[in-house]
Amino acid sequence: MTAFSLEPAQLAWCAELRTLAAERLRPLAEKGEPGHVNRALVAELGRLGLLARLFTSGALDLCLMRESLAHGCTEAETALALQGLGAHPVHAHGTESQRARWLPRVADGSAIAAFALSEPGAGSDAAALGLRAERDGSPGVAPGVAPSADGRPTAVASGDGAWGVEDSDHSGRGAVAGAGEVPGVGEPGRSGRGAVARAGGVPGAAEAGGGARRAVARAGEVPGVGEFGGSGRGAVVGAGEVPGAGESSRGARRAVARAGDVPGAAEVGGGARRAGSRAGGAPGPVVSDAGTRGARTPAGGPPGAAPPPPGAPAPSDLAAHPDGPARWRLSGEKCWISNAPEADFYTVFARTTPGAGARGVTAFLVPADRPGLTGTGLDMLSPHPIGALEFDAVPVTADDVLGEVDRGFRVAMGTLNLFRPSVGAFAVGMAQAALDATLGHTARRDAFGGKLRDLQAVSHQVAEMALRTEAARLMVYAAATAYDEDAPDVPRRAAMAKLLATETAQYVVDTAVQLHGARALQRGHLLEHLYREVRAPRIYEGASEVQRGIIAKELYAHQEAR
């Protein structure tokens, strides 16, 4: 890949996107509340068909979209990217049931997605994440279902209108946590390799002979040691829908019993908060009097939220219906999560096998209404919706798993390899916007008896800005094309593209501010906005230092393989 150029149709599409960003999307962005999800903006991206393209386009088209939108409206670019980042694991690794349920809503902008990888103590070192997925102590009974005297599952409605969790071991669990969390920013990336499959395809499995038995980890025992063996069978109660993937390994079959509608299930969309105790167990929004950015709220709704706005998903549409033979409780924290705590579902990475590093992580699809899941908004330099999440024994099942148990790191890395070049494209779009503003300003501005552009010190800086921007753009396009062609060096190219483009954008925007002078620092100026926006991409989805580590590792691995 020694040369690269866009086709005329691609160039025309980019020009159209820049116009849409400036004329249709920026006015919606300006009406949004800083630090919160702008659902009207996301819905407009859906109406324009741009969100649907996240699931049909290759990496190059994704880069062209992000670069073009960033040039005219960074908020629209970020909203589009976050929908893709949070939903791509579902698109690439989800079951048919998971995909059918969530992807159409992501595509039309009625459901907000989030990618929950980072933690207060595991940013760049994602393999060190500590969110625990501990085996639940009640085999074969789905949440929302209680065993009756004859051992048959019986639907149970929880008193607070939330997902029912009454059973022999966890009666009434799922209370909202109230502890504080540490604020911060950024999604990390890393150079970790995918996990290795374990015996029988189910890590942590306890194999039994012929007729399988299930070893269940109770409270205080080591999690991840109870699985189906040989030809085991698991009786499962469906909560309103037939379970999808997540079959037990080694030929295991599942007996599925329908339980009708979901008892005590309620989904909260559009920023509405999950109700507490209500008459008849019926869910409904409650308005908090906190009203502050840092207030604790059930994930899926901002503090003091009103009922769902137009375009938000209906409660019945997004209600969680989990079931399955394998069950876990998620406990711990996530931090610097974009779209938290207002997303409608999260792709969550949790440790299912302690001490196994990257090989003990599993990806789960967690709807925002799960009991025990709460969030706190964080006030950041650039006012995007970013927050921390707390998991207090949040229930998940095999039907919530994305990909395979203990192989979630592969899900994370595959997602980041796709999105890293497009982070570079976002940076290139900002750099181009700063360069265009500088060209106009230096051509108009009178100084020292002439125009600023006539000063060699100025014109040479403008030339350097253009040179670096174009070099970054070409590297981004080359990395995206390598991804689309399934080239073997995608991790190295993706890291190079993100590193060069984000560092370049920082330089270009900073130089543009210098050449504009004090006016560029005035609140509301384009460059003041870009100056705050451009800093975070050098951190999230893999800090610059992490990218250099990936590049070096890949180079030495290639040398040793020769």
TrEMBL record:
Residue ranges of the TM segments: none
**InterPro entries referenced in this protein's UniProt entry, alphabetically:** Acyl-CoA_DH_CS, Acyl-CoA_Oxase/DH_mid-dom, Acyl-CoA_Oxase/DH_mid-dom_sf, AcylCo_DH-like_C, AcylCo_DH/oxidase_C, AcylCoA_DH/ox_N, AcylCoA_DH/ox_N_sf, AcylCoA_DH/oxidase_NM_dom_sf
Could you tell me which CDD domains the record lists for this protein? ACAD (cd00567)
Q: Where is the composition biased (Low complexity)?
A: 257-266, 284-299
Q: Gly residues compositional bias: what residue ranges?
A: 175-192, 201-211, 267-283
Please note every region of biased composition (Pro residues): 300-313
Region annotation (Disordered) maps to 134-211, 239-325
Identify the residues that the record assigns to the Acyl-CoA dehydrogenase/oxidase C-terminal domain, covering every copy: 406-555
**Does this entry carry the keyword Flavoprotein?**
yes
Domain of life, per lineage? Bacteria
Names of required cofactors = FAD
Alphabetically ordered keywords of this record: FAD, Flavoprotein, Oxidoreductase
Record domain Acyl-CoA dehydrogenase/oxidase N-terminal: where = 9-109
Q: Name one Pfam family in it.
A: Acyl-CoA_dh_M
Tell me the ranges covered by the Acyl-CoA oxidase/dehydrogenase middle domain, including all copies.
Answer: 323-392
Keyword Glycosyltransferase applies: no
Q: Which family does it belong to?
A: Belongs to the acyl-CoA dehydrogenase family.
Protein name, UniProt field: Acyl-CoA dehydrogenase
The organism named in the record is Streptomyces lomondensis
